[in-house]
Write a structure and sequence with these properties.
With about 400 residues, the protein is of the alpha/beta class. The protein has helices at about 5-15, 25-30, 35-45, 55-75, 90-100, 115-125, 140-145, 155-160, 200-210, 295-310, 315-330, 335-345, 350-365, 375-395, and strands spanning about 80-85, 110-115, 125-130, 145-150, 150-155, 165, 185-190, 210-220, 235, 240-245. Strands 6-2-1-7-8-10-9 form a 7-stranded mixed β-sheet, with helices on both faces. A 3-stranded antiparallel β-sheet has the order 3-5-4. Helix 9 (about 200-210) links the parallel strand 7 (about 185-190) and strand 8. Helix 10 (about 295-310) runs antiparallel to helix 11, helix 11 (about 315-330) packs antiparallel against helix 12 (about 335-345) and helix 13 packs antiparallel against helix 14.
């Protein structure tokens, strides 16, 4: 993990309170069976466990329409899903409800894993407060959750039976497998990798790809686009989300090949659609219209063009496109964050840090516009703050 200043302070406080906690001997203790409880306590001190059911609705809507619905219609078998970094179980419950709403095979399962043993203990209950359920539409909440006590609800019993939980560190191998020993159809690992160092990020993505079924999909958060997709994965773009499909054996990541993704609907957001390669329609396709409506519309079009470069090796043209976009709209924080990622990938750490800082300021001061791809500015603000800390901790930033 690329620890934040707050996490470092928490860790220092915990270690200082332990006899010999700052010594090399204590490190050996933590690595021994006798130190397991102390290690769990330290992990809890730095773990991020804040989450909600149906978090990031736009991405979940894309998952339902472009991934889950086609899988349910085509595969006619139990689906195997994994929520990696599930915290206290909210994402596991969300995925179980989505499967049930789509009429997936009753044998479909969701595995939840997390590094924190205390989080997994709570997750196994699949019980939530009314606040955690606030994003769940009332009809869905009434259908799949039952009250336990005032202000607390639990998932219905027959869905709870389809969940399993395991304490797992994403740095440790072997990775989990599905119940039948096969790969997972969908792996969700959202808002986890933004807390990792770049090296750990890449290592985990490759390991997750290795646990996908032949037509499986990896879902990361919008703040974690792969600017360099490994050979094991290829990018599938939808209006408001990226997914990463397991690449066919011997196929290039630039060659889409067959994949279970529904044809996209038109975007109603005003942002030009960034999507997968379409199946030709029997009628003549509508020609794209040039952007209209002033600099914001032009900036959105340029941002969409830059997003088309994500998922492969980001080229100098990607950075140039993002700079043109920001010249039109300096407070398009999503574009500035993506520019920071491109610069960081190229090793221009000082420039990357400055872009991350400018994006963070526009978000903190409320000047940043939302975009259909990064609908959640609060999540983007967290990602920018983490990026600043990550780059600064990488070493002295050269100036000039």
């Amino acid at each position: 993990m690329a620890l934040s200043d707050l996490q470092c302070r928490r860790l220092d406080e915990k270690l200082a309170a332990k006899p010999g906690g700052l010594s090399a001997y204590y490190l050996l203790h933590l690595q021994s069976p006798a130190g397991a409880a102390d290690m769990a306590e330290l992990i809890d001190a730095i773990s991020v466990q804040k989450t909600e059911l149906f978090r990031d609705e736009s991405q979940l809507a894309a998952l339902r329409t472009h991934v889950l619905e086609p899988m349910v219609a085509k595969m006619h078998r139990p689906l195997r899903l994994w929520s990696a970094g599930c915290a206290t179980g909210e994402e596991v419950a969300t995925l179980l409800v989505m499967l049930a709403e789509l009429g997936a095979d009753p044998g479909s399962t969701v595995l939840g894993t997390d590094i924190s043993e205390s989080a997994i203990t709570r997750a196994r209950e699949l019980c939530f407060t009314a606040e955690q359920l606030q994003r769940v539409p009332p009809p869905i909440r009434d259908r799949w959750f039952v009250p336990m006590s005032p202000g607390r609800f639990t998932l219905v019993a027959h869905l709870k039976e389809r969940a399993s939980f395991l304490c797992h560190n994403l740095m440790d191998k072997p990775y989990p497998t599905a119940a039948d020993g096969q790969g997972f159809d969908i792996i969700a690992c959202r808002n986890v990798l933004i807390y990792f160092t770049p090296e750990s990020f890449e290592r985990v993505v490759v390991s997750l790809a290795g646990r996908l079924a032949p037509e499986g999909m990896l879902m990361l958060s919008a703040a974690e686009p792969l600017l360099r997709a490994p050979p094991e994965l290829r990018t599938v773009r939808c209006e408001q989300a990226f997914f990463y499909a397991r690449a066919q054996e011997g196929a290039s990541t630039a060659d889409p090949g067959p994949v279970v993704v529904a044809r996209m609907r038109p975007s109603y957001s005003g942002l030009p659609v960034v999507g997968t390669r379409q199946v030709p329609e029997p009628t003549k396709p509508v020609e794209p219209q040039p952007p209209s409506g002033g600099p914001h519309s032009e900036a959105d079009a340029l941002f969409a063009q830059a997003l088309e470069g994500a998922g492969g090796e980001a080229s100098p043209q990607t950075a140039d496109t993002l700079r043109r976009c920001l010249a039109l709209d300096p407070d398009l924080a999503a574009a500035r964050y993506l520019l920071g990622m491109v610069l960081e990938q190229r090793g221009a750490l000082a420039e990357a840090a400055e872009e991350y800082r400018r994006a963070l300021r526009s978000l903190e001061e409320g000047r940043a516009r939302t975009t259909p791809f990064f609908l959640n500015n609060a999540r983007l603000q967290v990602a920018c703050a983490r990026a600043v800390e990550r780059v600064e901790r990488a070493g002295p930033l050269p100036r000039g």
